[in-house]
Amino acid sequence: MAKDALSLAWLDMRRRRFATAIKRLEAKKEIYEENFEYYVTLGIACLYVGDIGASSSYFQLARRIKLTDTRLLLGQAAIFLRRGDTARALQYYLEIKENDPLNKTADEAMEFIRVHGNYDTICRWVDTGKIEQFYPPLGSNPDKLAMLGVAGAAFVLGCVFTFIFFPRDQQYTGPRADLSKLELSSEEKSDAKEKDLSTQSYAIVLSNKEINKKYNDALKYFQAHRDNAAQIEVNMILNSDASLAVKKKARLLMGYFEIPDFDTISDVPSLTDVAANPAMYLDCWVNWGGKISNAITYEDGSYACDLLVGDDALAKYEGSVKVHFDAVPAVDGGRAVKILGKIVLEDGAVSLRGRAVYQSIK
Question: pLDDT at residue 330 above 90?
Fold first, then answer.
């Protein structure tokens, strides 16, 4: 069966035939326009042949489609490392570690920067080609593997080719944790409402049936990797007249929610919706864009700013929200920004606990 150009290009690259891979892919430009794998593959190939300008351009095109792919981030980090811009390279390696904590290439690159990160050493490593050990890995050269024996090589190559030519999305869509222990018991289902309503007032009053449905919906959203949607259902339960037993299990469910990244976040509420009903969106994650103002760095190294939420030019302006980071993020306050953060309340006002920042390099 004939292989597509991307698969053949990856085989060329693993055989270290980068010029062949580039020529093969550039001939298919019209077919693969706006294709992430096409751009990132070309970017990696150009990086290995030393065409840094073309590599950077292709990586920029890939980044417009997907932000947090490990190969893309390794490639962009390597470009900054080659230039001696270790601070920018470290930003990318730290982002890789957030998404892929066990990534060995990022670990080795950060250790190199810590021990040998001066410009003279970097120049020598670029000159000798040793810098390539920090490039996106290509895997073993199949021509060398063939020397180990036809039978053994056929098995190994089949496994490696399956992984490289048909990469799986890292966002697993099957069942997550076994939450059978968090399912409501028969008694909890039948007595889902708080019996004594005289001692406390509730923002939301629900029927027994509504409480059960919201709890079951939260479990369903969790298994569908829609943690924001599940969090909203949990918040409605916590602010309602649901029983203490149901609320306890709802809080336990929150412990299973994952921290998203820019590519995996879903069900993002708008600032307008959050401002209208903050309690319903507490602890949800957002990736709001806009511009930064009133930035300040505190003595303990933490950082705060106001995010003016809207489009890049603030032609569509929703309002402002305070953002806090534990450490100073690498951000240019004069350019548009996108912030990944968790919704919290501080002094009764909506704010974000910042986790990551994205700005276009252009």
Answer: no
Q: Would you give the distance in Å from CA 82 to the centre of its chain? A: 25
Asked if residues 243 and 191 have their Cβ atoms less than 8 Å apart, the reply is: yes
The CA distance from 334 to 113, in Å, is 28
Going from the C-alpha of 167 to that of each of 8, 148, 188, the distances in angstroms are: 15, 26, 44
Which residues, other chains included, contact 124 with Cβ-Cβ below 8 Å and sequence gap of 6+?
Answer: 130
Percent helix / strand / coil, the chain, rounded to 5: 50, 15, 35
C-alpha 174/C-alpha 184 separation (Å) is 22
What is the per-residue pLDDT across 261-286, written as a single tens digit (0 to 9) for each? 888 899 999 999 999 999 999 999 99
pTM for the full model? 0.55
Q: Rounded to 5 degrees, what angle do the CA atoms 286, 178, 266 make? A: 15
- pLDDT bin (cut points 50, 70, 90) of residue 311 is confident
CA distance 314 to 336: 9
The pLDDT-based confidence of 339 (bands split at 50, 70, 90) is very high
CA of 276: how far to CAs of 201, 269, 271, in Å? 20, 11, 8
H helix intervals, the chain:
5-14, 18-26, 36-49, 52-63, 70-82, 86-99, 104-116, 119-128, 142-145, 150-165, 186-190, 208-223, 227-238, 244-254, 271-276, 278-281
Collapse the DSSP code of 335 into the 3-class scheme (helix H, G, I; strand E, B; otherwise coil) and give the result: coil
Question: What's the rounded Cα separation, in Å, for the pair 358 and 116?
Answer: 28
